[in-house]
Amino acid sequence: MARNVYGLDLGTYDIKIFDKKKDRIWHAKNVIAMKDKKYIFSVGDDAYEMYEKAPGNIQIIFPMKNGVIARFDDMQYLLGDLLKEERPFIRGAEYVIAVPTDVTEVEKKAFYDLVLHSEAKAKSVRIVERGLADGLGLGIDVLEEPGAFIANLGGGTTELSVLSYGGIVMNRLLKIGGEQLDSAIANLVRHSKDFIIGRPTAERLRKEFGVFDQSTGSFLTVYGRDMMRGGPSHIDIPISLVRAAIKEPLRECVRAIHSMLNRTPPDVRRNINKNGIYITGGLANLRGISTYLEESIGLPVHMKTDPELCAVKGLQRIILNKTLYRKLSYSMLDEDYRWLR
Ligand SMILES: Nc1ncnc2c1ncn2[C@@H]1O[C@H](COP(=O)(O)OP(=O)(O)OP(=O)(O)O)[C@@H](O)[C@H]1O
């Protein structure tokens, strides 16, 4: 029986998995609910459901932080649990993992070790730079493309990549993503309304308001804690407040995009000017964000449906195509691996 191959995109917010044998992609929240600091209570979407609702003895843990593995053992357990249904297939399987480029070698190695030293007894583990996987998922011919700019707007990070002829010319990982926008919204509600809302509520505000393209008069009723009266209550939050909160983090992304474009080598830049830029990642679903970026950057902005799945779709292409697999994935144990020589 042929061994199975899995493509993994371990995000700060969501894990995306491609299963070659079943030829399917699925995803789950990257969250663990821990009881009494000892026992795993639930994982994935079930654990996220409990976020900010669970009793005091249940702790909700996000094993990834800012795009890298922050709690190795928890991440390993969570991944093992998500793949549990596949038990007959996971032992001795091969894994191809998308990893951000602008991280330290130790952080990158943690992705590698996570799978290599798990109970899955992986046969091989290969790494793909996430910007390249994103490019393939967008349908770009990454090996032949002379210049493409991709901004992956994710749950805890924004990764900016300039690609050319199968390589990454420039890359930067910013600590700005959905999580930071939600904190900005929750902080502004707290300071301007004396009202405490949780992260899932802030996320709901961000998702339900078409932040850039709706009338200024709309508002949403949310539940939380009134700091003046000291009890649970509800409040109407206007769209203007959400816009004000997310303005600065989004401007920081725009400044970083400008700065990277300005440093891009002229020949590559010429192609980017011609093609425009691409956005991927879950935050690209924020209604009106492509128009906002187009106006701020002065270049056309393109995206595909399900932008959060671009990187894992790119891994799927790599796993199913021998040339892409050979040219774009590498093992950290390879003799010619650039950092270990
Ligand atoms: N319709 C939507 N409107 C606004 N935001 C959305 C929408 N759908 C998803 N998101 C946001 O996308 C983010 C998750 O995106 P994604 O799955 O790309 O992140 P990730 O890969 O887990 O994180 P990272 O790439 O930072 O490690 C979350 O913050 C989520 O709230």
What is the number of independent domains? 2
CATH architecture of the largest domain: 2-Layer Sandwich
Strand order of the biggest β-sheet: 3-2-1-9-10
CATH class type of the largest domain: Alpha Beta
Low-confidence stretches: none
Number of strands: 18
Class by alpha and beta content: alpha+beta
Total helical segments? 12
What do we call the CATH topology of the largest domain?
Answer: Nucleotidyltransferase, domain 5
Please, what is the average pLDDT? 90
Major sheet characteristics: 5 strands, mixed
Distance between the termini: 36 Å
Main location: cytoplasm
Family: Belongs to the FtsA/MreB family.
GO molecular function: ATP binding
Keywords: ATP-binding, Cell shape, Cytoplasm, Nucleotide-binding
Q: What can you see in these coordinates?
A:
The radius of gyration is 21 Å and the shape is flat. The longest helix has 25 residues, at 239-263. It contains twelve helices and 18 strands. It folds into two domains: 5-29 and 64-133 and 310-328, Nucleotidyltransferase, domain 5 (2-Layer Sandwich), CATH 3.30.420; 141-303, Nucleotidyltransferase, domain 5, CATH 3.30.420. With 341 residues, it is an alpha+beta fold. The mean pLDDT is 90. Residues 11-14, 67, 152, 154-157, 177-178, 203, 206-207, 281-283, 285-286, 308 line the site of adenosine-5'-triphosphate. Belongs to the FtsA/MreB family. ATP binds at residues 155-157.
Short structural description:
With 341 residues, the protein is α+β, with helices and mostly antiparallel strands. The protein has 12 helices and 18 strands. It starts with a strand and ends in a 13-residue tail after the last helix.
